[in-house]
């Protein structure tokens, strides 16, 4: 198994990081590094990375005050968003309920809507008239549709309205 | 919406929310001093991990913001610094997952050293940069933390999320890989 550490590593690393390698290293350590693959790699890589770190870079970092101000602002922004989320959901539910009520009133008071429902019922009845089902019969299905058609339509409207509101609220988030 | 996208009216509206809960982990004075000491090393680390100066700028601010919002109150400067590098590492890792970025080294950057200095060091630096580009992000991060930041094995383990006992072996392997890359004629020849 290859050797992965050496007792001289700390000495070599200290000399490299303090800029004393190899000039200030004693001859014994230099000889050791020349013969020890672990220390040789360490000296080479630590020196290369240190040179890379020390290389001047032309970068204009934002000032501490700017970063602090932005952090404050964003912190408030996040706090507002977090505190506003329940309100958004409540608004969504209220809007969905209002949409449902409006749909129910519309369905119950509009003649052409009622006619449409009756036509739909008749189509269903004729479509199922040839089908022999034990229960329910086509006639029973038509009766059921006539009785609950409005409720079904309103329920559908509520689902569509609630979905639309939730999608809108999530997009706003 | 990011802070950069905010309009003046957004700022005014938010400035009015004085009662909003805005708990940050430091006072402004403490933050300024801490930022002045750590921003440049963190930027250098992020730039090398992500390979994108603009992204490093953004991640730098995100790093400090998350540090401030973390609520953590590390006892010592070293703890604070390690927390900062840990956040930076995670952000760079996320950015790397989102898009495969090419890590850069300073050979890619405008050189502000004198022309004479540049002539002497540019070849070496581009060799190192080119070789490090070929490393895995984890190897780059570990080598940078160990030899540019002088972090201990325990600190590296904390930042990278690995076992302390594994750091020695991982560093050894990363050194071997980089040394092998640096000794290749293609790298040495600047191909």
Quick structural gist:
The complex is a heterodimer of chains A (173) and B (191). Chain A is mainly alpha-helical and 173 residues long. Chain A has helices at residues 9-17, 27-35, 37-54, 64-109, 111-128, 138-172.
What key phrases describe this protein's structure?
heterodimer; A: 173 residues; 0% strand; B: 191 residues; mainly alpha; 69% helix
Write the layout of secondary structure elements.
The complex is a heterodimer of chains A (173) and B (191).
Chain A: H1 9-17, H2 27-35, H3 37-54, H4 64-109, H5 111-128, H6 138-172
Chain B: H1 8-15, H2 28-50, H3 53-69, H4 77-98, H5 115-133, H6 137-147, H7 153-160, H8 164-182, H9 185-188
What does this protein look like?
The complex is a heterodimer of chains A (173) and B (191). Chain A is mostly helical and 173 residues long. Helix content of chain A is 78%, strand content 0%. In chain A, helix 1 packs parallel to helix 3, helix 2 packs across helix 3 and helix 5 packs across helix 6. Chain A starts with 8 loop residues before the first helix and ends with a helix. The relative contact order of chain A is 0.08. The mean pLDDT of chain A is 83. The radius of gyration of chain B is 19 Å and the shape is globular. Chains A and B meet through helix 1, helix 3 and helix 4 of A and helix 1, helix 2, helix 3, helix 5 and helix 6 of B.
Sheet-strand content of chain A, in percent, reads: under 5%
Q: Which blocks of ≥5 consecutive residues of chain A have pLDDT under 50?
A: none
Oligomer: heterodimer
Number of beta strands of chain B:
0
How much helix, percentage-wise, in residues of chain B?
Answer: 55-70%
Order of helices and strands of chain B: HHHHHHHHH
